[in-house]
Amino acid sequence: MKILHISDSHVSSSHFKKKSLKIALSEIKKKSYDLFVHSGDLTQQGKLDEYQKAKKFFDNIPIPSVMVPGNHDKRSGGISLYKNFIGKPSGVKEIHNAVIIYVDSGVADTNDGRVGMIKYNMIKDNLKKHQTKDIKILVLHHHIVPTPRAGRERNVLSNAGDLLDLILRYDVDLVLLGHKHYPNVYKIENTVFVNAGTVSDIKTRHGDVNSYNKIDIAKNRIKVSIKRINESEREKSFSRIKKTFYYNFGKKICRIAHLSNSFISSSNKFRYTHFSKAVEKINNSEIDIVVHCGGIVEEGIRRNYELAYKYLSRIEPKIIYTPAGRDINYLGYHLFPEYFGNLDQNYIYEDILFQGVSSSQYDSPIGIIGRTERESLLREIKKRKKDFNCLFLHHNVIPIIHSREKGLLEDSGDLLKQIVDEKISLVLTGTSSHAYAVKIEDTIIVNANSLSSVYHRSVHGNSFNFIDIYENIVVVYEVNSLWGTRRILGMWAR
Amino acid sequence: MELNFPDFFKKDLPIRTFISKKLIGVTTDCSVQDAAKKMVEFSISSLVVLKKDKVVGFFTEGDFKKKVIAEGKSPDISVKEIMNTDLINIDINSEFKDALKEMIDKHIKHLLVEEKGKIVGVLTFIDFLDVQRQKIETFISRE
Predict the structure, then answer these.
(1) Of the given ranges (A160-174, A417-431, A467-481, B97-111), which has the lowest mean pLDDT?
(2) Region for A402 from its dihedrals, namely left if φ exceeds 0, alpha if ψ lies in -120 to 50, beta otherwise
(3) Would the CB atoms of B22 and A488 count as touching at under 8 Å?
(4) Is the pLDDT of residue B137 over 70?
(5) Burial class of residue B65 in the structure, from the number of CB atoms within 10 Å of its CB (0-12 exposed, 13-18 middle, 19+ buried)
(6) How many whole angstroms separate alpha carbon A465 and alpha carbon B54?
(7) 3-state secondary structure (DSSP) of residue A337
(8) Residue A102 and residue A122: Cα distance in Å, rounded?
């Protein structure tokens, strides 16, 4: 199946490069495409004249097409015009043995995105109904995982974590997105996420040119080719063959206990029994290193730090820490180094570098690392040229299930891209209080639930993670803080 | 047999969304003791037996009890001798309630999951119980 994927045409009298759109659309005549996809922002302001103009371009596409509205299309009440001029904003299309589910993710008159409960259930019901299809494709405007070179990462879909989980659980093959005007492709587990750049808006990012994507889905491979207008193509190819069986683990190198949000205090928000049972489990589980990804105390006051130091001293293996915002609030900025050491800690165990980076800011749940720090950090890790390394921070770099995107880093798009490009083996985070683990290309990203706070979001109760690194395979478990029982969260070949 | 399921199980839940899609296995020459160690190490209750990445058998912790301990066999025998070769599978596109009925009807706690003739996952009885855990947690924290 061959797909021509464009996005963000921004047809208007001010922002629009007609020539670029014509070049992209002329591609249809060159190859035998099966599907044309426009992933939103057809117009600039959602106005009548813009829709009239856009209709002329998109009305006569000679192949099956799927289009969704973007945030710009819903400005000025544009959703009514969208329905009149373009068609249904959400729906399902079947082509041969493929199903394409498309949804409107815009929120009128803002740049934010959201897939509301009715549309979320529509996606779920259709994925269920069409689960036997050979190819399952989802199309929406807003990006689901942070995209690089996109500036501040604040307006992802509010329920991106839920959507990401749904996509992975239903084995969706391909997700087509737009919004950020920068083309990018990631494979997350077995799903390929393709962001298109802008096909014809003058507003490109970082001096980039307009672009579109050519996608070819075969039985065993998905090829995505980003075609920058008047420039060469860049192709990425991904296997569709899933690895199901794991048996040759090799020697065990290291077991990590990955904790977050202990939330230690004398208040009833801290669950002492859960904490104590977890400590007991850690001390009896041959742990080589404990990584605490922030949220040590409920608030950064001395009384809490004294208590936290006393309780965490009961953990026998080496512990390394990174702070959350709440750890450095009030006096915490001074107390953290006094009780637990540097803000950016590192440790080497069996030739594996565990590098922490403080992503927290005073009085804010929002995290940021910053370009200078990010580049220096990645340079240090790269210098070691080892085949396995671990970065740990408090804020999550991918959206987490059942949580709004508040835990994301402002610069998570760029951080994620650098992590993936540099093939950082393991990234440990600790926001949003839900255990989650996925592999993005060569990088395993693991988020920890709250160890012992009443504020957790998991049906499995408070928990922490064990991460076992073998010669050939990495296994991540979620361990219940109270019961000590564990379940496999993920398993990947190294 | 017509089963009267609690409301939760009446929902149309595709097993695709709950099963483990990554299976831990052993090769046919693995001893029963090493296989048991593997189950303990990974905290799992079943293993697939593989020959050149193809499933040739399956066994669960119940098989150790019935076919090794109760019969007084040595833990050094190979898994080949106790594995089930008549595999009980369910299609990945099945519903949760169909899988549960299959387990109850056949008195088993594990089902291998297949897609287009290939084994792609395993569903265990624990997967059904997991969803009830939140209620237990909430009860404990109230105490």
Answers:
(1) B97-111
(2) left
(3) yes
(4) no
(5) exposed
(6) 31
(7) helix
(8) 10
Chain A with chain B: Cβ pairs closer than 8 A: 70
Which option is the CATH number for B7-142: 3.40.50.2300, 3.10.580.10, 3.90.960.10, 1.10.1040.50?
A: 3.10.580.10
Domain match, A208 and A311 both: no
Distance of CA A26 to the CA centre of its chain: 33
End-of-domain residue from the set A209, A239, A269: A239
Total-model pTM: 0.94
Domain-located, residue A247: no
Distance from CA of B131 to the nearest CA of A (A): 7
Which residue range is the domain that position A98 belongs to? 2-239
A295 to A300, A393, A417, A450: CA distances (angstroms): 10, 11, 26, 9
Asked whether residue A222 falls in the same domain as residue A259, the answer is no
Q: Are residues A204 and A277 in the same domain?
A: no
Taking only the tens place, the pLDDT of each residue in A219-248 is 999 999 999 998 889 999 999 999 999 999
Instruction: Give the Cα separation of A208 and A197 in Å (integer).
Output: 9
Is A243 in contact with B23 (Cβ distance < 8 A)?
no
Nearest of A432, A428, A389, A424 to residue A407 by alpha carbon:
A432
Q: What is the mean pLDDT of residues B64-81?
A: 94
Interface test with B, best of A219, A245, A468, A473 (most B CBs within 10 A): A245
Hey, which residues 454-473 in chain A have their CB within 8 Å of chain B? 454, 459-462
Question: Which H helix or E strand runs over A123?
Answer: helix A117-129
Domain coordinates of chain B in residue numbers?
Answer: 7-142
Give A405's pLDDT tier (boundaries 50, 70, 90): low
Of A210, A239, A268, the residue that ends a domain is A239
Mean pLDDT of A400-428: 86
Shared domain for A210 and A310, answered yes or no, is no
Distance CA A17, CA A203 (A): 10
Of A243, A246, A459, the CB nearest to B24: A246
What is the distance between the alpha carbons of residues A153 and A151, in angstroms, rounded to a whole number?
Answer: 6
Q: Which residues of B touch A242 (CB under 8 A)?
A: 21, 120
Residue A244, domain member (yes or no): no
User: Is residue A109 predicted with pLDDT exceeding 90?
Assistant: no
- The reply to whether residue B25 touches residue A477, judged by beta carbons under 8 angstroms, is no
Nearest to A224 by CA among A149, A163, A173: A173
How confident is the model at residue B141, as a pLDDT?
A: 47
What's the token pair of residue A321? 């820490």
Residues A445 and A474 in one domain: yes
- Domain CATH code at residue A415: 3.60.21.10
Residues A69, A195, single domain; the answer is: yes
Instruction: Let me know whether A130 and A103 are in one domain.
Output: yes
pLDDT per position as a tens digit, B110-121:
999 999 999 999
CA of A345 to nearest chain B CA: how many angstroms apart? 30
